[in-house]
Amino acid sequence: MIKVVLPPHLKTLAKVAGDVELEISGAVTQRSILDALEARFPMLCGTIRDHVTQERRPFLRFFACEEDLTHESPDAPVPAAVASGKEPFFIIGAIAGG
Amino acid sequence: MSKVRVLVGTRKGAFILTADGKRQNWEVNGPLFAGWEIYHMKGSPVNPDRIYASQTSGWFGQIIQRSDDGGKTWDTPGGEKLPKPGEFPSGGSNKFVYDTSSETGKLLTTHQWYDGTQHPWEFKRVWHVEPALTDSETVYAGVEDAAIFRSTNGGQSWHELAGLRGHGTGPKWQPGAGGMCLHTIILDAKDPQKIYIAISAAGAFRTDDGGKNWRPINRGLVSPYIPDPNAEIGHCVHHVAMHPSRPGTLFMQKHWDVMRSDNGGDKWHEVSGNLPTDFGFVIDVHAHEPETIYVVPIKSDGEHFPLDGKLRVYRSRTGGNEWEALTKGLPQANCYVNVLRDAMAVDSLDSCGIYFGTTGGQVYGSADGGDSWMPIVHDLPAVLSVEVQTLR
Question: Rounded to an integer, what distance in angstroms lies between the CA atom of residue B241 and that of residue B251?
């Protein structure tokens, strides 16, 4: 069971209060995490990655284990601590005013 | 007793204002979707409890929300359902994908950019939702980059009416300061095949066959800020309004100029008349008097605030040309707000109510056709849109 931390606006949209826990079979990668997240919460489709290109939306970042995973390959394994559920996978909105 | 429900979209959420038919005491609910930009909300004329909302964000993209209980609760249409095992998640309610199918036979991939070069079409957001007049499951969406989409399943999925982009003038369309948006959709109550739309900055278009084929309807518009002031395409139309009982008569607030057409847009003529400035964004028509129209003049394209710091609605009872300033209850000094294109609406009570919202966060209402005004709320985030439902 892995843990995902959503930014507040997406928590509201998905109607969840805390961290999201997801069961993933097979390799735990950014892609498999996002696939599982969108399967569980269909309303998040298109909010993190583009519907068609599947590319990350430009103002979002992925962090875990105090590392910036944003520019890692979507098919690269995430750190073992994320895959084991010890550490969460953070989806972060870029900081901006207004 | 009759009620009115005013739907207000702002930069930081949505608000619903309700009052009885006297329209003196208002209940304010919100913010809904706090922190998100709500470009537009509109209720179905068939089922007023069904309301569609365009919720958008530079971070998270486009969301379509729908309420089936008059705005008390909301859901993303279809997005609340868990997919069955092995089924790909739906999440199609926010999926606006331009039509590139061979069926249209007219792939159209670029429009004009600010610097005159060609630029690919990129979906950004929904500016306007327009529920159908006879079916609450059908709803249209006007989007940026400019295109019109239709849903026939209550917003669960969307399909582009690609004939609009496909008729050949797309490479001449260009964005205005707010983006290249399709912001106005008018459905003809007497002819369901006829739809009018407007785009900044391309102009107005009409279909006579339910959206398959479109043609520009900009003859008579003159825009000195484009290379050919009389061009068929390139005019920055800010908003268009039509009275349901007069489907051929259209009123337009262009970038500069207030215009009128009496033949469905085939030919326009200017009706700015004695307006102190004819730049502006909103225009609307009285619910019971098809020749009574309203605009809010703004100083200029470079100074988006009222002339002389006085917020004045102008009313013409003659379908244009002769205008009177309506000021009672509106600030007449030091007012430097704007009123955006979708931020005026009218109710249909016997004494017609007029409502508009400002970029300063005020929503003003008049229960007497504009003779006097009162602020319903005055400290909301910048108002992007105002719609009203008359509930009987």
Answer: 5
Q: Which residues of B touch A (CB under 8 A)?
A: 33-36, 57-63, 76, 78-83, 88-95, 97
Predicted confidence band at B230 (pLDDT cuts at 50, 70, 90)? very high
A contact set with B (CB within 8 A):
7-10, 12-13, 38-40, 42-48, 51-52, 57, 59-60, 93-94, 96
**What are the sequence ranges of the domains in chain A?**
2-93
Of the candidates A97, A98, A69, the one whose C-alpha atom is nearest the C-alpha of residue A83 is A69
Q: How many domains does chain B have?
A: 1
In this prediction, residue B262 carries a pLDDT of: 98
Of chain B, the percentage scoring pLDDT greater than 90 comes to: 86
The answer to whether residues B128 and B342 touch, using CB atoms and an 8 Å cutoff, is: yes
pTM of the model: 0.94
> Tokens 């917003």 — which residue?
B155
Q: How far is A87 from chain B (nearest CA, A)?
A: 24
Contact B283, B252 (CB under 8 A): yes
Specify the amino acid at residue B149.
Answer: F
- Which of B62, B79, B83 has its CB closest to that of A39? B83
Q: Please give the C-alpha separations between residue B92 and each of A13, A52, B77, B121, B157, in angstroms, as whole numbers.
A: 15, 11, 8, 20, 5
Interface predicted TM-score (ipTM) of this complex, two decimals: 0.85
C-alpha span between B144 and B124 (Å, rounded): 5
Q: A84 to chain B, minimum CA–CA distance in Å?
A: 24
Residues of B in contact with A38 (CB under 8 A): 89, 91
Q: Which residue of A has its CA nearest to B57?
A: A47
Residue B89 pLDDT greater than 90, yes or no: no
Answer yes or no: is pLDDT of A37 > 90. Answer: yes
Q: How far is the CA of B231 from the CAs of B112, B201, B223, B236, in angstroms?
A: 15, 12, 8, 12
* Chain A nearest CA to B120, separation (Å): 15
The domain spanning residue B269 has which CATH number? 2.130.10.10
Of 3.10.20.30, 1.10.3210.10, 2.30.110.10, 1.25.40.10, which CATH number belongs to A2-93? 3.10.20.30
Domain that holds residue B18: 3-391
Cα nearest neighbour of A39 on chain B: B89
Put simply, the answer to whether A93 touches B59 (Cβ < 8 Å) is yes
